[in-house]
Amino acid sequence: MDVWDSRPELLELQNQVMTTHWVALGLQLGLENDQLQVIRQQHLDKIADCRKEMYALWLQTKPNASRQQLLDALRTNSVDEVYMADQYEKYIQDELSQSGAT
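RE: above sequence
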């Protein structure tokens, strides 16, 4: 399996993809607005907590969640986190280089 088609780990997402546009990103990843609003209310709009719960929900409910889907979603006009996507992509490439994977 290609690394881009593989599922990211929650901790990886928390540490590497720290967007403040978590609602727009969640929508792009196929989550429902109602689900995202529940997360917002439960965490009193604390961005880091909301973002973590959004990623957890995505990984739990989308069996085909992948790094490539995340990169594509970050680069959409509605999320507009191209630089963050580029940094995440570089992080994955650096991890591959360090591990000796191709």
